[in-house]
Amino acid sequence: MRRKQWRKLEEGCFIWLMRLALLIAVVGLGSILFTITSRGWAALSWEMVSQPPSAGFYLGGGGGILHALLGSLYLATGATLLALLIAVPVVLYINTYGRGSKTAEMVRLVLNILWGMPSIVFGVFILGLLLALGLRTSLLAGTIALALVIVPILARTFDEVVRLVPHELSETTLALGTTRLELSIMLLRQTMPGLLAGLFLAFERALGDGAAVLFTAGFTSSMPSSLFQPVASLPLVIFFQLATPFPEVQARAYAAALILTAIVLTFGMLGYFFLHHVGKHVIR
Predict the structure, then answer these.
(1) Domain assignment of residue 236, yes or no
(2) 147 neighbors 126 (Cβ within 8 angstroms)
(3) I want to staple 229 with a disulfide (CB 3.0 to 4.6 A). Which of 12, 14, 94, 224 is the partner?
């Protein structure tokens, strides 16, 4: 009887701990949204979103953050596509050709380590390569740095989705005489909703990262005409504007943070939609 009571008490404690964790997460998100909305709403306008910055924009002049917004989209899109080209073949390989092997477990361990590594480390690494090659900060360098940041996120997310595919489905596919390559194609089609959700997660991570692009993408008030020119980004716009002593410029920084948060939340909801609604007909 005591053991049964102890188990009920233990279960109740863990339920309340989970509720407390959920409450902390909700309160934290609400506090962030309230802070940036209350401080940046007054400075938010269509001109700010649709116009390029003027010469004195970061000191209180006219213009907007259009170039930084487009620059962030360029960086995040390029990084996501590059990470996709790396992550998908790796995950399909370790779940078909290397399934259950030590190599697959080693790859997962490396991906987990890279996932936990601060993004500024990747930025410093790419910066070292740029200095060694005699190159300068550019859109291409920022894209590569962000791709290194989100490759483990996309790969591990996709890997967990692939591992949810029933093992019997893979065995049945192989029993029909298919090759490992054909099995990989079947797994890719079966896990497409989860892959799309992982893509949205990786994209929003790349969109909001400022540490990796700080040393690699540079900063400019104009749009780059090639991959080898520096580019502006929203996280750095927020960083530079908050560092100024002018309240008007700081309000613009909060408005830019509000725009960035809205974009990130939008892509997060799209990922949730693809995972839970588009994938409702997937065999489980």
Answers:
(1) yes
(2) no
(3) 224
Structural domain span for residue 273: 46-56+65-281
Pairwise CA distance, residues 89 & 96, whole Å: 10
Residues 6+ apart with CB under 8 A from 99: none
Q: Please enumerate in sequence order all residues whose Cβ is within 8 A of that of 253, keeping only pairs 6 or more positions apart, or say none.
A: 40, 237, 238, 241, 242
- C-alpha dihedral over 229, 230, 231, 235, to 10 degrees? 160
Closest CA to 48 of 266, 264, 260, 267: 260
Q: Do the domain assignments include residue 198? A: yes
Quick one: which H or E segment has residue 169? helix 167-175
Q: Is position 21 within any domain?
A: no
**What pLDDT was estimated at residue 281?**
46
Does the pLDDT value for residue 283 go beyond 70? no
Q: 195 or 81, which is more confident?
A: 81
Q: Is residue 169 part of a domain?
A: yes
pLDDT of res. 221: 81
pLDDT of residue 49 exceeding 80? yes
